[in-house]
UniProtKB/TrEMBL annotation:
Keyword DNA-binding attributed: no
Keyword Transmembrane helix among record annotations: yes
Membrane-related topology note: Multi-pass membrane protein
Major location category of this protein: membrane
Keywords for the protein's UniProt record, in alphabetical order: Membrane, Transmembrane, Transmembrane helix
Subcellular location: Cell membrane
Protein name: Transporter
Entry-linked InterPro entries: MFS (IPR011701), MFS_dom (IPR020846), MFS_trans_sf (IPR036259)
Domain (Major facilitator superfamily (MFS) profile) ranges: 228-427
Residues spanning the membrane: 30-54, 60-81, 93-116, 186-203, 224-255, 261-283, 295-313, 319-343, 355-376, 388-410
Organism this protein belongs to: Streptomyces daqingensis
Length: 427
């Protein structure tokens, strides 16, 4: 009798197998839940602050400048906080830093509510710069758990990127509804509460926390001293400018049409496209070849898709803009997943949180610059001028990523000719 054929695996279950492997590890579900709650304010703080300040003070330029100042402060304070986390551990540093950040958010809402001078808005929002890089800490936990297996690390990076995007997808509409339907300050206050609650849950899970590792004297250079990191950080800077200018341009676009509450929903389409793409990336085996070359290709695709948003904005339709942002968002996750994996391959493990925070710092610096530029453009230039900024920044990001790929190719050629040690970028 011929043996019965083995049952074929269910296609959906087969696709989800890499994610089931991740969450089979004890404690991963708990720290992921806390991480998601703590990251949700990332998608709320800027939108809440812009709507709150613009409603109370009547100026998008002021709102953009305040949020840009806070993000610029994060560019300075964030790496210092990450360095302390690498040196002393997540549990000892992240909670005090979170308390300071939440206090800054509450202070901002109070200053707006009670008509405090403009300088107090800048000072209060700057205090939120101590917000720990929750995504970086979460990625560091995955990197520690699967330090000997690159497959789950790829899936974990894809999941974390999707988690970031889901928070950005959920945060803006929640913030917009809270600020427009309740009180203008309610979005900021809710975000501060979620940040504190999520961090408490995240830090309570101690089993997955990476141990503090003693550094070999002189053997672990600071991330910024790695030559390979400069073009990567330049790419993240320009990608951040895409996000920042897109956010402010969309809010102003909706506000000009008397539909400010819809801005968060429209922005959510961009995050949704990236989240879906990120989850799909995590289910496929990464292609062979140099990782930096894949990064350059992904950023070039992102730049092409960013042009769609400018074309849609020129029609004046919020519906078409939302559809265009959905398409443009699909180019974001592959670039970010590949870029973060590249950072992990480049930075020494004992400086991993600091290295990833520098990437996020570059991203936030770009967001700050993009926000300020789009805010000024929306205030002083007519029509859809702010939507020219995202594709322009995306083209610069593609140029920086291509520069990194060319540098890598030249270094490989030099290695083959002279037998020199390999550069740290590798696939």
């Amino acid at each position: 009798m011929p043996s019965a054929a083995a049952p074929r695996p269910h296609p959906v279950r087969s696709r989800l197998a890499p994610y089931r492997r991740l969450f089979a590890e004890p404690g991963t579900g708990a720290f992921t839940a806390g991480s998601m709650l703590a990251r949700l304010p990332m998608g709320m703080f800027t939108v809440s602050a812009v709507i709150m300040i613009a409603s109370a003070r009547g100026s998008y330029a002021l709102a953009g400048a305040v949020t840009a100042t806070g993000l610029a402060a994060t560019a300075v304070v964030g790496p210092l906080t990450a360095r302390l986390i690498d040196r002393y551990g997540q549990s000892r540093i992240a909670l005090p830093a979170t308390l300071i950040a939440a206090g800054g958010a509450v202070s901002l809402a109070a200053c707006v509510r009670f008509g405090a001078p403009d300088w107090t808005l800048f000072a209060s929002y700057a205090a939120t710069a101590t917000t720990p890089n929750t995504g970086g800490m979460s990625r560091a936990r995955w990197a520690h758990l699967f330090r000997h297996d690159s497959g789950p690390r790829h899936t974990a990076n894809s999941f974390e990127q999707a988690a970031d995007e889901l928070c950005f997808m959920t945060g803006p509409p929640v913030a917009a509804v809270l600020c427009t339907q309740l009180l203008p300050e309610s979005g900021t206050l809710t975000a501060a509460g979620l940040l504190l609650l999520g961090m408490l849950i995240f830090l309570r899970e101690r089993r997955t926390e990476p141990p503090v590792t003693a550094r070999a004297a002189g053997g672990r250079p600071a991330p910024l001293r790695l030559p390979a990191l400069a073009p990567l950080l330049a790419s993240f800077l320009c990608i951040g400018a895409v996000f920042g200018s897109m956010e402010i341009a969309t809010i102003a676009f909706a506000g000009d049409r008397g539909q400010q509450a819809a801005a968060g929903v429209v922005l959510a389409f961009h995050a949704a496209g990236s989240a879906v793409a990120g989850l799909l990336v995590g289910t496929v085996r990464p292609p062979s070849g140099p990782l930096v070359r894949r990064f350059a290709l992904c950023v070039c695709v992102m730049a092409l898709l960013a042009l769609v948003s400018f074309a849609a904005a020129s029609t004046g339709s919020l519906v078409l803009l939302a559809a265009a942002l959905l398409v443009a968002g699909m180019g974001t996750a592959p670039a970010m997943v590949t870029g973060m994996t590249l950072i992990q391959e480049t930075v020494p493990p004992v400086r991993l949180n600091e290295g990833m925070t520098w990437a996020v710092t570059a991203l936030l610096t770009g967001i700050a610059g993009g926000s300020a530029a789009a805010g000024w453009t929306a205030e002083h230039l007519p029509g859809q001028a702010p939507f020219a900024l995202p594709p322009a920044a995306a083209v610069l990001a593609a140029a920086a990523a291509s520069s990194a790929a060319l540098r890598f190719a030249w270094a490989r050629r030099t290695e083959r000719r002279a037998g020199l040690p390999k550069v740290p970028l590798r696939g």
